[in-house]
Structure formats: C-alpha cells, structure tokens
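queue> pop job 88
queue> type: inverse folding (structure -> sequence)
queue> payload:
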C-alpha cells in the first residue's frame, strides 16, 4: 500500500512484483542513460551483471565473478587501477571500469570504494561534476568501512554516511536517481579476501555489525530523499547462493539482484514493465531461488543490549551536517522511495506535479506516466566519452 498526499485516498502500488528482464528490454530501459556504480566487490559484480545483460541473455561465469582488475570484461575497459596498477587487498586499492555499448547508447561506469566517504570519493564526484551527468547512481559501501578502519569504525561509518549523502545531494543533477543498495547478509564464517588474517577475530561480529550499519545507511538515505533497496531482506533466505567465503554470491543471485534493481529503476522512472510468466528454462525461478527452510539468526549481540532473538534497538543517529536537508515521510517495508528530482525531457519523463524540486511526491507516490518498453527508442543525442 502506498499513501499519497494528505487528504487523498490510499491506492495500491501499480507495479510491485519483480520483473525478469530480457537483454533487449534492459537496452531500452537504459537507452541514452549514464549509469554509475560505486562500491566494493559485490557492487563490482552488480556492474558486471548489468554490463552482460545489456548485451545478451546469459549469466556470469564463476571466473568472471572471481576476477578483479582485469584489463577487459565483456567489451568494457579498465580505466584506472586494477592491473594497470597493483592488485592488493589494501584500503588504497583502486579500480575504475567503463562500458560503452557499440551503438553508443549505453554508458556504465564502476568505481571501487573501500570507504563510503573519503578524499578519493571527492575526486570521483569531481569527475562526475565535469563529465557527463549521470542518470542513475547505484552505491553501497559497508563491509570495508566496518572492518578496516579501527575500533570506532561504526561511529566513523555513520558520520561518513551523513557526509556522502550531503555531497551526493549537492553534486548530482536533479534528474539523477540515486539507489542505495543495502549490504547483503553475511555468513556465520567470513573468509573474504578483504578481511586480513589479523582481522579474523572480527568475523564473528561483522555480520551483526552489517545489520546495524544497514539501519543507519537506510535511515540517512531516506532522510536525504534517496531510494533504498533492501538487499539484506531480499536475500535473507537465499543462503544457498552465497559463496563459501560468507561474503560473495553466485551468478544466479546476481541476476536476481539485477532484476530487483531494474524493476526498482523502471518503477521510479514510470516505465511500464512487460507482463509475462517466468520462463521455465531460466535457472532460478522464484520458487527455487529461495530456500525457505534455511534461516539465519541476525539478532544483535549482548554488548548492544540485545540477546538472541531480540530485535535490534539502534542508538541515535549522528547530528546532521549543517545546511537545509529535506526530510521524507513515507516509510515502506522493503523498498524505500526517495523524493523525485527535477526530471528533464526524456523518453521516461514523468510530468511534474508542482512545487519545488526535492519537495514533491516520491517516485512511488505520484501518478504514473506510462512508457512501454517496446516503444522505439529515441535517437542518441550526444556522444559518450571513450
């Protein structure tokens, strides 16, 4: 159920079920769109699956998921870092990738982050300021923030979350949709390469720290009127698709993630999604993707004042950075919508409903302007950088 403005009748969300996109539909949805993805190795896999899905209907291989810093992946190119520099697991690791489709109608860029806010991120934001304006930004940073920056990592993470959302609000154009991907659930044993041997004692508490960090990140993102996709919730029963390192996920999980993300984006842009039954030949139909007999305990540890099975009770959020920050009111259960920005004329433009930018209805609360994915895409209006 979605609630509109005060004194209006509640209405049902028009599109709530996840759609399973074909490559041709993704090409139409992201036609003439610049997509920027920022984050860790999970986000790199989000980038890779999207790049692959923009070209054909197939899944990533295990080798493609495992590789990092390679010079080229599925017609993309390594722009900086990775094999152009030094491959390591330190907090100074850098990797920038970019895919530009052969038609020139799709541009996707990935920046590897080891911290949600830093001087490096400021450099990234400067690039986005002087380069082509992004239409969609997908971001997450959590595991590195909570495991590699000392005893006060959670406090630093909360402060940096506030900083990054303020800066994103200042730098991104009003037409840009920002989606904060909440961190996915960790396994009971974490052996990912980012967790150095001397940090292994943290592994036991890290999975619960992620729950706490997710709470703060989602709350702050919504307070700044950005969208939130709760991947922790969506994948809580899909543990059979998580790798043995307790951190990473297989190709079926990442395609499922792409479908969730693209459904969210299409809904935010007011695009009418295709209606079809799930193809029987696909490797992960909904009734098989999730193992509902497999449950995990994500209750908080006793040092937070909670025992097993007790819901997490968060502490106060950090004080906001000075300056006017709009506050949203809608609170959804799983997918949280940020307020829409001023959208320019585009094939997926939703007409304005009056009022200043960032103070209007959320994407999910406004009238839906129907745009079908089978329409003829418009001519390309510019040239992407190489």
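queue> result:
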């Amino acid at each position: 159920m979605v609630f509109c403005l005060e004194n209006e009748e509640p209405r049902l969300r028009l599109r709530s079920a996840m759609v399973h996109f074909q490559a041709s539909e993704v090409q139409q949805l992201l036609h003439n769109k610049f997509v920027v993805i920022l984050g860790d190795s999970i986000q790199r896999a989000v980038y890779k699956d999207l790049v692959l899905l923009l070209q054909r209907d197939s899944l990533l291989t295990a080798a493609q998921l495992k590789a990092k810093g390679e010079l080229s992946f599925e017609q993309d190119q390594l722009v900086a870092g990775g094999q152009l520099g030094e491959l390591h697991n330190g907090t100074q690791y850098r990797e920038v990738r970019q895919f530009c489709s052969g038609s020139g109608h799709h541009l996707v860029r990935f920046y590897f982050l080891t911290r949600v806010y830093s001087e490096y991120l400021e450099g990234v934001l400067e690039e986005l300021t002087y380069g082509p304006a992004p239409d969609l930004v997908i971001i997450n940073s959590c595991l590195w923030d909570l495991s590699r920056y000392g005893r006060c990592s959670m406090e630093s993470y909360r402060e940096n979350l506030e900083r990054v959302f303020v800066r994103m609000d200042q730098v991104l154009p009003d037409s840009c949709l920002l989606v904060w991907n909440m961190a996915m659930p960790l396994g009971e044993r974490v052996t990912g390469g980012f967790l150095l041997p001397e940090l292994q004692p943290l592994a036991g508490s890290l999975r619960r720290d992620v729950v706490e960090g997710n709470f703060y990140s989602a709350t702050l993102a919504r307070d700044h009127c950005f969208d939130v996709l709760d991947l922790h919730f969506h994948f809580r029963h899909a543990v059979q698709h998580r790798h043995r390192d307790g951190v990473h996920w297989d190709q079926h999980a990442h395609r499922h993630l792409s479908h969730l993300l693209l459904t969210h984006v299409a809904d935010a842009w007011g695009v009418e999604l295709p209606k079809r039954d799930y193809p029987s030949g696909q490797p992960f139909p909904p009734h098989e993707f999730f193992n509902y007999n497999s449950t995990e305990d994500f209750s908080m540890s006793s040092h937070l004042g909670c025992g097993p099975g007790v819901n997490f009770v968060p502490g106060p959020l950090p004080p906001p950075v000075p300056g006017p920050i709009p506050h949203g009111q809608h609170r959804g259960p799983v997918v949280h919508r940020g307020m829409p920005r001023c959208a320019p004329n585009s094939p997926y433009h939703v007409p304005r409903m009056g009022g200043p930018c960032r103070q209007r209805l959320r994407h999910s609360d406004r009238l839906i302007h129907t745009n079908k994915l089978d329409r003829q895409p418009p001519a390309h209006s510019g040239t992407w950088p190489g």
